[in-house]
Amino acid sequence: MTFDPRHKSRTLLDGPDRAPARAMLKAIGFKDEDLARPLVGVAHCWIEVMPCNFNHRTLAERVKAGIRAAGGTPIEYNTIAISDGVAMGTEGMKTSLVSREVVADSIELVARGHLFDALVAISGCDKTIPGTVMALTRLNIPGLMLYSGSTEFGEYEGRHLTIQDVFEAVGAFNASKMSAEELCAIEGHACPGAGACGGQFTANTMSTAFEMIGISPMGWNGVPAVDAGKEDVAFECGRLVMEVLRRGVTPKAILTRKAFLNAIAGVMATGGSTNAVLHLLAVAKAAGVKLSLGDFDRISRKIPLLADLKPWGRFTAPDMHRAGGMTVVAKRLLDAGLLHADELTVTGKTIGEEARGARETPRQEVIRPLKRPLKPTGGMVILKGNLAPEGCVAKVAGHERMLHRGPARVFNREEDTFTAVKSGKIKAGDVIVIRYEGPKGGPGMREMLGVTGALAGAGLLDSVALMTDGRFSGATHGLMVGHIAPEAAVGGPIAALRNGDIVVLDIKKRRLDVELSAAEFKRRLRKWKPPAPRYKSGVMAKYARTVSSASEGAVTD
Questions:
Q1: Are residues 344 and 391 located together in one domain of the fold?
Q2: Long-range contact list for 31-37, CB < 8 A, 24+ apart?
Q3: 34 among annotated binding-site residues
Q4: pTM of this prediction?
Q5: Where is [2Fe-2S] cluster bound in this sequence (predicted)?
């Protein structure tokens, strides 16, 4: 049976009873012939507070042109975004993860309210990427996601820079290892123009994950933001969504369990951000697919680390695109028998077919051959233990420390930790504990890049460990453990920690423990009282009341 390309919009626009709706649309320039075609939403996240999404209006125009050329009527709309790089280290950063839910909710509401037949969602900065895919999945109308692209690296005195270098320069300046003039120069050169952060931080991690999952066309997300080919890709997305609509292929036909496992494999092979755990769990929830923390650890154990990417490696996302992009990584996994090759993608091809078409740049150094991986296993692991009964996430790409035992230095908010690092109060061997920063406790689960950048700048990354019920930027490296669940705000074991308690992080055993007896733990937790809510009204209070555990993706539905 042929799929009706106007499967939604006929109800909105056809027949005498719908004359008022047509009249409203004609008031803004639509003609009868426009309203007789499929209505295709073009949702984007343009906002004048960051480079990550700054090209969305331009890309939206090209997507719309592609939709018109293929016989559809595009309708553009936009949602919000929060800049992690701008808000980092302040109270404003608590809004970042909350924004993922708002992005998803608002895109869903507009498309559902106006009965769009299909949807192209343009994403940019970190939370907009999973947020757009969550919306596509909830709506389950034919559609795709286009990532607006990474920025190119900045340059200063022969060094290739990303925003990571600025955060670490702040730490070096505070430790009297860098002059104010050099800090200012790095600040002025690190971000050369439009596009999301250039390393395999959260934005590029999720961009590549959704190419692997199949909801973004393979190779198209990787085209950098300022590359002349990005507008061509946007036009082709407009044409492609009309093909997807005529075929009647919906997101839930693409977002299968095996597709999610392919996405996790891609994250592990590229040393991606720990935020991928939160976001893939959240999208899986929207898709009705069973996915757990255990899946991430199981896949990490068998996937080699292949891509030599910042924050811990040498290269940036545009470098990887020029090397052949995520298609080459998929081909490596296919050759190793580690890819579910028969999963459908939005192009109509399977992921295996896409991988077989990989074009690798001769003599490229970004993506290692299977015989010479950077590591034999993936870039992150899942730990459990008496401090994290539900689990937590540790990134292991870029360092070799598998064991750390040391005294806890406990802080109840990120700012106090940053001050302690800045004033030289953190010593080699310490285990820094930052709590009450989880989904409910923050609320909003801030990233800790200000602190981890300060540690790097102070030369402490190789001698301390950090654990938190908050989360980390994809630009973070070192022995860092995040997403500890249950979080402190709900009485998780991390709430019982005190200064001087001996904490043990054992990566090989996948354990995070404190050397306390069960009886002492119970005694301390019996005396514990939850802190008063930081927000008593508004969006932050509503989020704190409804958000789930980090081990379930920190979702609100």
A1: no
A2: 34/73, 35/73, 37/6, 37/71, 37/72, 37/73
A3: no
A4: 0.96
A5: 52
